[in-house]
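Notes from the 1:1 (GR / supervisor)

We went over the backlog. Supervisor wanted to see one worked example end to end before approving the batch request, so GR pasted a single chain during the call. The sequence is below; no edits were made to it. Supervisor asked that the structure be written out right there so they could see what the output format looks like.
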Amino acid sequence: MTNFKNHKVSVSQLIGLIPEALLTHLSSNTNVDYYTKVLHAKKVFYLLLYGILDNEKLSQRTLEDTFNDSGFKVLFDLDERETVVRSSISERLSKIDYHYFMEF
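Structure output shown during the call:
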């Protein structure tokens, strides 16, 4: 695996490279948000990306903490009152169509 420690890219810069319209388009084309109430595909994508960049070890518990963190919500313009629990993350990850992520 390539080591990227010497590359200085902020999360904001990285996210700026991914057009929000692309995420919305892929979500509608793959129909991944059909029965979803809170964890829409775009939020799952942002959560996984941020979780990978922000945590040394990625787990459902760290993803729960990340999603419920106010800094994450501000960065991705999410409602501060919105919360998610580990079991919801687990269920969403097990059922989301992987083709959504392959399109990137």
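Supervisor's comment: The helical segments are 11-16, 20-30, 41-54, 60-68, 70-75, 86-95, 99-102.
Batch request approved.
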